[in-house]
Amino acid sequence: MEIVNYFKPKTIEEAYEKLQEDPSNLIIGGGAWLRLSSKIVNTAIDLEYVGLNKIKDNEKNIEIDAYVTLREVEKHESLSNLFSGIVNKGINGIMAVALRNLVTVGGSIAGKYSFSDFITPLLAVNTEVVMYKAGKMSLEEFLKFRSKEKDIILKIIIKKEEVLGYYYKMKKTGLDFAVINVGVTNTAGYYKIVVGARPSLAAFAVKAMEYINSQKEITEEVIQKTSKIAIEELKFGTNSKASKEYRIELAKVYVKRGLKEVTK
Amino acid sequence: MKIKMTVNGTKKVYDVAPDEYLLDTLRADHFYSIKRGCDNSSCGVCTVLMDGKAVQSCSILSVKAEGHSITTIEGHQDEAKKLSEYFGHQGADQCGYCNSSLALTVHAMKTEIKHPTNEDIKEYLVGNLCRCTGYEAQHRAIKLCLEDEE
């Protein structure tokens, strides 16, 4: 990425105003993935001084500001005790500590990266995204959200619930992007199945979820059928990491394992 | 654009481009202990400490370090020397290209985790690649060094 100007606003209003000034202006997160882009940016806007750097932990939710780093989230004790630790597990698989000290929550969500190991577990639990202008929406809505006007992510809100969770990232080497990642949760008998890095962006296996959530008892047969429905409804593809066929086989296995894990 | 930061306790002013990386800024200022490796956050040889935390200087813009305190191995000689002796005894040292970043990463780990377990050490060093030693000897050396410090 080529950056012409760099701006560190003091307020969110200032940041928003600058963001609208030029179509190429953008909010910069930790900046770790800038090398992946060949864009020319007139002004990169850094939210360091805006004050979006806190994690608020209350009875119902954990609210994480956009400028909090992934390492800070990963080390957050309360979060590591929730959802069988799947959010922390997802983050833990992202490159090295030295990179996770840079990468921010806002940047990781805003990029809607298809290889994201953060979005998949967050989708599997109850997560909302709060934007400066568009307001609050579910993470699922945010991933589909398109607007002509550029906006700023202020924070994410993770609802504290009794959730049994499973997350698995299949990767070829320790520091690699996911070949596929799978998140499965069971919230008081309601199952969610998310498959990411297919190689497209993480998505719910909606039909598979409908099927399993309509069953009175979760048997081996039900799990097998749910997994089959999931791989039939989700779109898989080929890229330099793996073929479509390999991804389908992996997803089938990890969805099954996940369902077994959260049904215990 | 002009930015201010502290490097190894000395106040510095650098004139940088908005898209210049900290690795380039510091090496241009003769901090050659910071190595250029993969240039894409994979190998860890460019690791420095920013406010005591390990960061990969190939992946952070120099402007992001404005107002922060940077430590390279040049500012960390005593502790690095001690660790290097353990590296030597355990055969954890060959070309030495990754040693500076490893020493800084170990320091960051000690600051963050009081009594790191074997798993903590492995997890913390995951981003520091070494083409020579195979990691076992390094792991042993770090563990022994930490044990002796305690």
Describe this entry's structure for a reader.
- The complex is a heterodimer of chains A (264) and B (150).
- Chain A has 264 residues and is α+β, with helices and mostly antiparallel strands.
- Helices cover 34% and strands 25% of the residues of chain A.
- Chain A contains 11 helices and 12 strands.
- Chain A has a 5-stranded antiparallel beta sheet. In chain A, strands 9-10-11-12 form a 4-stranded antiparallel beta sheet, with helices on both faces. Chain A has a 3-stranded parallel beta sheet with strand order 1-3-2, with helices on one face.
- The longest helix of chain A has 20 residues, at 244-263.
- Chain A is globular and about 60 Å long.
- Helices cover 37% and strands 15% of the residues of chain B.
- Chain B has 5 helices and 5 strands; from the N terminus they run ββαβββαααα.
- In chain B, strands 2-1-5-3-4 form a 5-stranded mixed beta sheet, covered by helices on one side.
- The mean pLDDT of chain B is 94.
- At the A-B interface, strand 1 and helix 5 of A face strand 4 and helix 3 of B.
What's the CATH H-level superfamily name of the largest domain in chain B? [2Fe-2S]-binding domain
What is the general shape of chain B? Answer: globular
Which residue ranges of chain A are poorly predicted, with pLDDT under 50 across at least 5 consecutive positions?
A: none
Shape of chain A: globular
Q: Report, as a whole number of angstroms, the end-to-end distance of chain A.
A: 47 Å
Give the strand content of chain B: 15-25%
Helix/strand order of chain A: EHEEEEHHHHHHEEHEEEEEHHH
Order of adjacent strands in the largest pleated sheet of chain B: 2-1-5-3-4
Task: Determine the CATH topology of the largest domain in chain B.
Answer: DNA polymerase, domain 1
Please identify, by name, the CATH architecture of the largest domain in chain B. Answer: Orthogonal Bundle
Beta strand % of chain A: 15-25%
Mean pLDDT of chain A: 96
Number-wise, the strands of chain B total: 5
Tally of helical segments of chain B: 5
